[in-house]
Design goal:
Strand content: 25-35%
Distance between the termini: 43 Å
Number of helices: 17
Mean pLDDT: 87
Radius of gyration: 30 Å
Oligomer: single chain
Strand order of the largest sheet: 9-10-16-15-12-17
Number of domains: 5
Number of strands: 40
CATH class of the largest domain: Mainly Alpha
Shape: globular
CATH superfamily of the largest domain: Topoisomerase I, domain 2
Largest sheet: 6 strands, antiparallel, barrel
CATH topology of the largest domain: Topoisomerase I, domain 2
CATH architecture of the largest domain: Orthogonal Bundle
Low-confidence stretches: 664-670
Helix content: 25-40%
Structural class: alpha+beta
Amino acid sequence: MAKSLLVVESPTKAATIKKILGPEFDVKATVGHILDLPHNELGVDVENGFTPSYKVISGKEKVIKELKRAAQKAEAIYLAADPDREGEAIAWHIAESLGKKDRVYRVLFHELTRRGIGQAMESPGMLDRKKYESQVARRVLDRLVGYQISPILWKKVRSGLSAGRVQSVALRLIVEREREIQAFVPEEYWTILAQLDAKVPPEIEARLIKFRNKAIKVTNKEKADEILASLKGVEFSVKDISKKAQSRKPVPPFTTSTLQQEGVRKLRFTTKKTNMLAQRLYEGVELGNEGQIGLVTYIRTDSTRLAPEAQNEANRFIKERYGKEYAPAKPPEYKNRKHSQDAHEAVRPTDPWRTPEDVEPFLEPDLFKLYELIWKRFVASQMKPAELEMTAIDVSAGDFLFRATGSVLRFPGFMAVYTEGTEDKTENAADRLLPSVEKGEKLKLKAFVPSQHFTKPPPRFSEASLVRELEEKGIGRPSTYAAILSNIQDRNYASREKGKFRPTELGYVVNDLLVASFPDIMDVRFTAQMEEQLDDVEEGKIEWVQILKSFYSPFSKELETAQKEMKKGVPTGIECEKCGSEMEIRIGKAGPFLACPGYPDCKNTKNFERNEKGEVVVLDEEKVKIAEKCPKCGSEMTLKRGRYGAFIACTGYPECKTTMPYGNQGSPQTQPPEETDELCEKCGSKMLIKTSRFGGKFLACSNYPTCKNAKPIGLGIPCPQDGCDGELTERRSKKGVFYGCTNYPKCKFATWNKPIAEKCPQCGAPFLVEKFSKKKGPYLACPKKECGFTREIASE
């Protein structure tokens, strides 16, 4: 008979712990939360202290019964859900469901190794009420926002839309950045480079920086030509040489946020994929004779702090592997960001001696890449700084001064292991090699290189830069970023083009309506202050009900106003030629269109597009020329208007019924291909992500038309058909998006509901599907009708 019961939330985590604790412990997994707010109602008693009404999640009745049976036989009960707010809520709900508070202990596993588990079990604690109340406050807050704003959007704009407390602010950042780009007015400027030869190679490339000891700005070609004429026949000589030693410090070990950012930059993983893989590394991986071991520490953290033992072990490893000269005299210290909770260590390998080379045979490629990234970042963070010599050569040419810069790496330090990724792919002048020259040395001019440039607008957000922006502004928490970015794309509020976010027309409409009706909810500073208050609840500085009361009073007034006054579309400043009202952008089943708010008295509608400045312009359909021919019959394509907007149709109708979506820029709706790291199995060229004529994504060889290899992009979800080894992929038809097997036509499985890579906790089905009802909104359900499992889709 088991002496003690230990409960975690993950079956993988349970298996790892069971192997270490042995037969004296009965280890059970809840598979996530067992209680939550009800799916089909608000579930919060606003009138009575915002009391949440928790219900057993569908399918978890069996789990609770099994836990109760095991608890009756156990001498002690250890609740070991993840060491964060969500984990504390799971532990609290388990204790309440078991009806036991005596013999119940809370243990926090920061790493799933024999040492980490042993240390946690030696000093168990009690349930943390303040941490639990902080989670309750966040959950109730998100429910109040999502469940009360989303129905207004369903009524005013379109069914199936959602609003989230943090998600909506993240969308606002994307929309406002796009408008910054549209409003940006580029300014012309020129650079003048002189290519010079010294006595010894390499060539010097010096840039014009001063005229008569004053900084010079070349604003146009005329000015550039005037300067070049003045430089004709002028002698070039070395005026000054400056050398400066520079020390470049290593970057800190990973937090959740920086791991997500670097996963995007270096591995081209989405934040969602990085989170999923990191969770697997934490919960445990089978390593041959070693068994199942957690390879990294707990992954949800905003701290760069490291345990002294980990730093000492890293120091010893560095001395042995790289040499004593690479190990600092004392461990480096890194400052945390403001408002960091510092409850957990940084993300690091549980053992630096378990090198990437050692574990590679046991890990699938993507899992290995992420472990290698975490390992290298940690080891590098504990090494000495890199030592560089920065050199600047000033070259005089009459009244003009040119400068060439470069650097020499004197000691690699941490750079022998790792350098941080960057989104800026431009060449760094400081990285150029320079020849050895002497002061006063004459230089021979080879050529001038004048170049025209234009100032650039701020770049669109990538996943990495948006995560960084959210963190810097104090919006949300790192553990929620992946879900937020995923929701924005899943709801079609923003699309990614070449890895950068761009708002869709639906995103513009939803954002503008929410900003107008809910200025506090959509305010960045207000959202950041709410995060700080939630932290204060955990620290015991404020009662959770107090922050909800102060929030809900003004919010309820905004709700009441929005229900009466929120428009069904966004005003455009374009006058309806039939009745004189201001036309609005509305969202129909087939996309955005302009409509008169005077409906049903005035039924005027128009198609529109946005110009380069983002301004809404009525589409003059007669002037639109379609360059593409019909892919089926070769006839001309033409623009037509339907009930819900413009589309491209074949002129051969009715014999040929080919149609395409129409983009807002006067062309069929296509997107430029996006490069991937995957290689073509037929010719070895890189595969590209391309967009089909129906808007779907697929992989195609970059060597087209020489190589015509193409295949669908799998979702990583196995096909449920017996005997099929394919996976599900998104497909599009004239009727819309559906999901089928990559082995089509051999396997003809298909579903209209979006599959989600999550096993059904009730019957074990390999995936869940996303559904929508007017009463419940979006929710998850088991694809097997006989199972009946459903669960609300939570939104931040």
